Protein: Gamma-glutamyl phosphate reductase
Amino acid sequence: MTTPSPLSPYDNLTPVTQAAYRARSAAADLAPLPRSAKDDALLAIADALEVRTSEVVSANAEDIARAREAGTSESIIDRLTLTPERVRAIAADVRHVAALPDPVGEVVRGSTLPNGIDLRQIRVPLGVVGIIYEARPNVTVDAAALCLKSGNAVLLRGSSSAYSSNTALVRVLRDAIGGAGLPADAIQLVPGESRDSVQELMRARGLVDVLIPRGGAGLIRTVVEQSTVPVIETGTGNCHVYVDAETDIDMAVDILINSKAQRPSVCNAAESLLVHQDIAAAFLPRALDALAEAGVTVHGDERVRAHAAEAGTKATVVAATPEDWETEYLSYDIAAAVVDSLDAAVAHIRLWSSGHTEAIVTTSQAAARRFTQLVDSTTVAVNASTRFTDGGQFGFGAEIGISTQKLHARGPMGLPELTSTKYIVTGDGHIR
Amino acid sequence: MTTPSPLSPYDNLTPVTQAAYRARSAAADLAPLPRSAKDDALLAIADALEVRTSEVVSANAEDIARAREAGTSESIIDRLTLTPERVRAIAADVRHVAALPDPVGEVVRGSTLPNGIDLRQIRVPLGVVGIIYEARPNVTVDAAALCLKSGNAVLLRGSSSAYSSNTALVRVLRDAIGGAGLPADAIQLVPGESRDSVQELMRARGLVDVLIPRGGAGLIRTVVEQSTVPVIETGTGNCHVYVDAETDIDMAVDILINSKAQRPSVCNAAESLLVHQDIAAAFLPRALDALAEAGVTVHGDERVRAHAAEAGTKATVVAATPEDWETEYLSYDIAAAVVDSLDAAVAHIRLWSSGHTEAIVTTSQAAARRFTQLVDSTTVAVNASTRFTDGGQFGFGAEIGISTQKLHARGPMGLPELTSTKYIVTGDGHIR
Structure:
């Protein structure tokens, strides 16, 4: 056997590669399972999380103590913290995933061909999914539950700051699914806290079917650029609100403030405001005051600053630099520019947007139609907040992330996006 | 502008990157075009190919002369050759693509959310598609037509052996679509005949949306391993025919011979035969004789060779080495093994298959069900030849390739597989 197959057992495997082989074997067992077997395991996970809450919370306390020693900010410590109440909420989320329809086996296409062959394209699990994520330990359980429901084995690579929490959580999950008769290796924490384990995951082509990085832009860029395993790029959002020449100004102010300030730390929050020059004098004074009230600093181009000065707004308006047009602030800041036309707004968005979500506020059907046709982002909102780009809001019931790439999945990813398909060709002796 | 955007014009662009920028701009123009504009351009291409056949054929003669000088084999020269008749056939294929439905704008999902928002997921072009392919110049036109129909700009990187033919063809195509009012840069030959241009294409992340290598296993592996642009892996086919314990022997022989010998040079031809031990004594003598008649050399394991010796078949049966289990012969050769059970056949396939197409021949409903559940390939055929895995056979009307990966597209890829999607969220002032 001179040319080893990716599925052959080798000597000298690294711990990460060993984990991937075990995951592959578990994935083969999961793929044909009926929904009931997967749901039973999910309910066992939820029960186990409730029964073993104190074990999880005390492991979490170790992470928090380390984080405090390291001088971590309170906002990050808050995201890291698991209370008994939060663990209960996580368990409830797992029950919610169990209640969702099983994507596996869904017939996506089907027909009888002219020669009498029955052709069906059905959803099948991807196989082994690797998730690389940052501080929040709740992602450990969410991702594991979504992968299990969709018949995939999962390799979880959380941040080292949550290692004790993740270790405890994965122990609970593995015990629960093992008790429910499923292979425990369907859920594994990637061994090792060092960056080497991320590198090994990115090189595990043939063993890992897809990597999904969830977290900051730096993490995502590293994985996208370095991985030989196929990647689904998630979550960077430089979202725009464009206020058209013909618009309902009250609606435009409401949508702007909601898009920017309802929760600025998330990827579907707006980071840029574009205003048609014909409406700027009427809209900007109201918008700037509303932004000021919401505590938002405006990074304005020359024309925005001129309108601000003329209107005597109480808003803080600083001069925008080109960097502002491409910055995902994730804070109470917004870039703002006046544009000559809808097409100029589209050109600005094409140049600077991360392709996540762009909204237009307009009373013109023609403008709405042109904007939705020309803007090439995962989601285009017409007279609605950018904040709706979300698996929960879209009615998917759960979300593994928001893909900002064009291949495989684009926009909020639910359970079907964690599947591939295969064709079943059924004949009675058909030959060509 | 310290951090340049991928869409900014730069100084010092390489010719390939310049081509990619122009393709991106053309793609933005193509995306909103209605079907009629694209079909008119396709029909203009077909007409132009017929009018300018002699220009294409004489350019092709230069390639053929060079190939003969270089001592190229007649089979490759045949694939390279364009006759007036072949050019007419290519033009007819383009008219066929024009007649296919436009995938762009198709509503994939749609609903009114509980809050009254209208949500629609619609198909949109991918943007810029790069195709890297080998000798056949007809791929130049096929790929351009399919990309144009699906609203994508295309960067064509053919083999240097077909450079004159491809240059002439692309000149005809660009003139035709330019005359039809579409941007000529929607169809471009990647400049340069050296391997550097392939390297540059593979590094053009952000400019090229997807690369599709079409050709030999070596080309595909290089692109898959080295590209930072997302890749759709196509076409390697180590396809298996498994003859179950309960089977119709006549049907099994017919399917085996058709799968192996009807056209051995294609990716959906069978390369391996697996026979259940309980049927081997009845099936193998018949099968080996039929393979011998079809001119197929059998690379058999010990048990196959024992049956061959016992039956006194006229077939050529050589001893299989482990390499045979994973070889895509593309010739009149087949690897053959006797397996203990259906599950052993599945295990063999999991270990060695390229995941293209596997067929089972069985009279048992339970065996058919288990095989289709457990085999994880793009296509599983029950009582049908492996040769049906083909966009034309599946009724897709055309095919850009057969994806053997799990992300985005799996199996024969038609026009919908050359699209992505975007969500349109329409409200009347909706905020969260």
About this structure: Residues 35-51 of chain B form the longest helix (17 residues). The CA atoms of residues 16 and 191 of chain B lie 6 Å apart.
